[in-house]
Amino acid sequence: MNKPEHEFFPVTDVAFTVCPGDDPKITERILAKDPETGVATRILRYEPGADSTPMGVQKHDFWEEVYILEGSFTDLTLGRTFTAGMYACRPPGMPHGPWRTDEGVVTFEVRYPA
C-alpha cells in the first residue's frame, strides 16, 4: 500500500493530534500516511515550553526530512538551536534530540522507507 492520493486541500482541515509520547504540547497534523509502513508526511508542532526529554534520543528505521516553518527548538544532545528556514535530512538510524523550545516550533516533515 502507499500513501493516499490527495489533490490540494487546506491543511487546516486536518486536526492536530497528540504525538506518541503523550505530551499535549507536542502535536502532529498527519497529511498523508501509509498505514502498512507508517511512513508519513506531517506538520509537527511544539508549543512554547515543550520538552521531549522524556522520549529520549530518537532513531528511526526510515528516512526523515524536516523543514522548520516557524519558530525554533534546541537539540539538547547537540546543544544547538535550529530556526525557521533550516532543513535536515536524516538517514535511518541517525540519532537526534531530545528537543526543547521556548518560543514554539512548527516543522514540515516527510518520512519514507529506507
Task: Write a brief caption for the model.
The protein has 114 residues and is mainly beta.
Describe what you observe in this structure.
β2 (26-33) and β3 (40-46) form a beta hairpin. The protein has 114 residues and is mainly β. Strands 1, 2, 3, 4, 5, 6, 7 and 8 form an eight-stranded antiparallel β-sheet that branches. It is built from no helices and eight strands. The protein has strands at residues 17-18, 26-33, 40-46, 62-75, 80-83, 87-90, 99-100, 105-113. The protein has a single domain, classed as Jelly Rolls.
Q: How far is the first residue's CA from the last residue's CA?
A: 16 Å
Report the strand count. 8
Query: What is the helix content?
Result: under 10%
The rounded Rg comes to 14 Å
List keywords for this structure.
RmlC_Cupin_sf, Jelly Rolls, ChrR-like_cupin_dom, 114 residues, ChrR-like protein with cupin domain, RmlC-like_jellyroll, globular, mainly beta
Lay out the secondary structure.
Layout: E1 17-18, E2 26-33, E3 40-46, E4 62-75, E5 80-83, E6 87-90, E7 99-100, E8 105-113
Antiparallel strand pairs: 1-2, 2-3, 3-8, 4-5, 4-6, 4-7, 4-8
